[in-house]
Specification:
about 20% strand, signal, lipid metabolism, about 30% helix, Alkaline Phosphatase, subunit A, 13 helices, zinc ion binding, four-stranded antiparallel sheet, about 425 residues, Gyrase A, domain 2, alpha/beta, 2 domains
């Protein structure tokens, strides 16, 4: 009976001395981050969600989570895996754009543009792999490119015509992720679902269609929890369910739409590059010498539109201080989208608004061996989730804007011994 622990102890000593992968040392827990795109913080209040409710009873629930500004899919998802505000991680929009060549690429194409994502920040997948772990990403934005030459251990990228609503496929994707944990021995996986965002856009957030999609999400949470149990992962896998942003109803038939082509003192002839018609946000690069003229024409053009010179944009948004941001940028009030040369926006629901607006708030649930049970915590910013995930994995985080102390009370105790020199506090100036 003494032979086994002595053998294990000897193997551990040898492994430590030879630089063996970190995840082979001790009882390190695995981590699954699941994102349901566009899941507003209160979507579970007008729909029966027994599985999300059970998860809250068995783990931790935040009253709500505040996403980063700008409340778009790619920027907010990258904040979760870097712990940085958007101006600091550089993925400032869902679309790749180049103000010199005038190239603008849609969301799905941008998912595969390496230089858009790999622009100085190292996401958690790469950090974990550099410290000996194995990671995977299933459809998660930013998980299908290399960072500083490093690719994820395993990854899947959604196709341009991907059907976000297919519940059968959702379960198959979960089955694949379970195999990644059990057969491929991955330590960290990020799993993305494009709902209820897609349904919220098409039908609006206050509709029966959205409510039915939330019930589908809830069934999927139940299937996921059953799968974790079935694969004997309950004692080793921490599960976090979150989202990127909320959703609000668009005032499509309002008498005071935000329409640039109707502003009397503005002309597109003064513009070198524009990024408009993407919800409630816009960026403009005026032609040489035209900045003040364009700004003066727009700053009071519409009471629902807020236009700023880059250097005057509210610092509290942590958004404008990045080289990718144009000299003029703007956002509109909740419910109002920005129409450029013509009106081309037809969504009934939209996001991208001020992250202080309650309809932009989103969800956070967590459970597993490291988390307390039946705990509801006060709201927090999504920028803190990265430090929590690094702590759960026992890896040293990259410099970031989050505080581990914000979310540490969710945990029973130290889930894993931190590596030598690991920081648990906010870097100076963040």
């Amino acid at each position: 009976h003494l032979a086994v622990p002595l053998t294990v102890a000897l193997a551990t000593l040898l492994a430590t001395g030879t630089g063996a992968p970190v995840h082979r040392q001790g009882n390190r827990h695995k981590l699954l981050l699941v994102s349901f795109d566009g899941f507003r913080w209160n979507y579970d209040q007008d729909v029966d969600t027994p599985h999300l409710d059970a998860m809250a009873r068995d783990g931790v629930k935040a009253r709500y989570m505040t996403p980063a500004f700008v409340t778009m899919t790619s920027p907010c998802h990258f904040t979760l895996v870097t712990g940085k505000y958007i101006e600091n991680h550089g993925v400032v929009h869902n679309m790749f754009y180049n103000t010199t060549t005038k190239v603008k690429l849609p969301y799905h194409a941008t998912l595969g543009i390496e230089r858009w994502w790999d622009n100085g920040s190292v996401p958690i997948w790469v950090t974990a792999q550099r410290q000996g772990l194995k990671t995977g990403s299933f459809f998660y934005p930013g998980g299908n490119v290399t960072y500083q030459g490093v690719a994820l251990t395993l990854s899947r990228k959604e196709g341009i015509l991907h059907n976000y609503k297919n519940e059968t496929e959702w379960r198959a994707n979960i089955d694949t992720v379970m195999l990644w944990f059990t057969e491929e021995d991955l330590d960290l996986v990020t799993l993305y679902f494009g709902e209820p965002d897609s349904t919220g856009h098409k039908y609006g957030p206050e509709t029966q269609e959205r409510k039915e999609m939330v019930q589908q999400v809830d069934r999927t949470v139940g299937y996921l929890r059953d799968s974790i149990e079935r694969n004997h992962l309950s004692s080793v896998l921490n599960l976090i369910i979150a989202s990127d942003h909320g959703m609000t109803t668009v005032y499509r038939n309002a008498s005071d739409l935000v329409e640039f082509h109707k502003f009397p003192n503005f002309t597109f002839r003064d513009i070198e590059f524009e990024l408009l018609d993407y919800g409630p946000n816009g960026m403009l690069l005026p032609k040489a010498g035209m900045l003040d003229k364009v700004y003066d024409a727009l700053k009071d053009a519409h009471p629902k539109l807020h236009v700023y010179k880059k250097e005057s944009f509210p610092a509290s948004f942590h958004y404008a201080n990045n080289p990718r941001i144009t000299p003029l940028l703007m956002y509109s009030d909740p419910g109002y989208v920005i129409n450029g040369r013509i009106n081309v926006q037809f969504n009934k629901g939209e996001h991208g608004f001020d992250n202080r607006d309650m309809n932009m708030k989103t969800i956070f649930r967590a459970m597993g061996p490291s988390f307390k049970s039946g705990l509801e915590v006060e709201p927090f910013e999504s920028v803190h989730v990265y430090e929590l995930m690094c702590h759960l994995l026992g890896i040293k985080p990259e410099p970031n804007d989050g505080h581990l102390s914000t979310l540490l009370p969710m945990l029973h105790s130290e889930p894993n011994p931190l590596p030598s020199g690991a920081s648990t506090h906010l870097p100076s100036g963040a």
